[in-house]
Amino acid sequence: MTTPASSGTKKRVFSGMQPSGEAHLGNYLGALRRWVQMQDDWDCVWCIVDEHAITAGGDPAELPGNVFDLAVSYLAVGLDPEKAIIFVQSDVPEHTELAWLFNAVTPVGDLERMTQFKDKAQRFESIPAGILNYPILQAADILLYKADAVPVGEDQKQHLELTRDIARKFNAAYGETFPETEPLIEEGVGRIMGLDGEAKMSKSLGNTVPVLAEPDEIWNRVRTAVTDPQRVRKSDPGRPDVCNVFTLHGFFSDVGTRADIDRRCRSAEIGCVDCKRILSDNIAAAFGPFRERAAEYHANPRLVREILDDGAERARAIAKQTMAEVRDRMGLDWRKATG
Ligand code: TYM
Q1: Are residues 308 and 333 in the same domain?
Q2: 245: exposed, middle or buried (C-beta count within 10 Å: 0-12, 13-18, 19+)?
Q3: Are 305 and 287 in a shared domain?
Q4: How confident is the model at residue 11 (pLDDT cuts 50, 70, 90)?
Q5: H or E stretch covering 47
Q6: Residue 271: which domain range?
Q7: What is the pLDDT of residues 141-184, one digit of tens each?
Q8: Is residue 154 located within the same domain as residue 94?
């Protein structure tokens, strides 16, 4: 028995996000915005990867709320349960089962050279195996659905290369089963910098703008953004080409506004605070419809629950087929010996 790679004529995409609360502007530009656009042309599976979020422990009291908040973010930005499967990883136990089986074809050396592992490992005296095995679970997420492609930001590139290696090794050892999934990384948005202008925008660094923030909060964040370090006084001419705030204008302000800011920054006619104010207002306007939709879901948590329950059921139906095939290929069927 083989699992269809995708339903109908559409190719399948899978992607996921860790539930560390609401999504932020980097998640939105690097991933979510594209996911929304893909929903008409692809067979889409969007996951909340709660089992990835606990690879190094975590507070059990916070996780349910974080999953809920991310689900609201997904729905608020436009992920659509009518068009896509939207579900929570731990509702489909086949993810961890397949991850276990992939241990058999994954060299430890490949896991140890992952840059995300090396970065995270530094934070521990005794390194949890979860952060080493993290990319195996990610490969299982993707291959369980035989996804043709995975839209992600640049930081996931190495994990996706490993996913392809795992698929290749599995196919070589047990027969052609999995596709070699393509990473889809959008040029220019694969690595959105944080408001500190120094590191990738990331919740753990506190340099983000949450997509569901109120205009006041957006302003409180954006006003702290680092601009051209050489521009100390308002009377100093600025250099938009090295300024992260100006880069962010590229996503939220129209061409005319950008040209005007560029000129007035270089001639010191506009200061950084005014420039940030325009950016903050434009982000607040762009994210306004998301806040409105989020308020509806917050007022109706049962609806969110129904959407995720339904998504899990649909995901499980695909996962079960793949696992039946994998178990058979790996000889996990002792009854065969009894005739
Ligand atoms: P996570 O939760 O860190 O991020 C979710 C998605 O957002 C992208 N992203 C960014 N893109 C551009 N600029 C940024 N500053 C930025 N920050 C985050 C990420 O690249 C990602 O696409 N390991 C994954 C979760 C995962 C997964 C999967 C992804 C688990 N299984 C299967 C795809 C397929 C992660 O931690 O993403």
Answers
A1: yes
A2: buried
A3: no
A4: very high
A5: strand 43-48
A6: 215-294
A7: 999 999 999 999 999 999 999 999 999 999 999 999 999 999 99
A8: yes
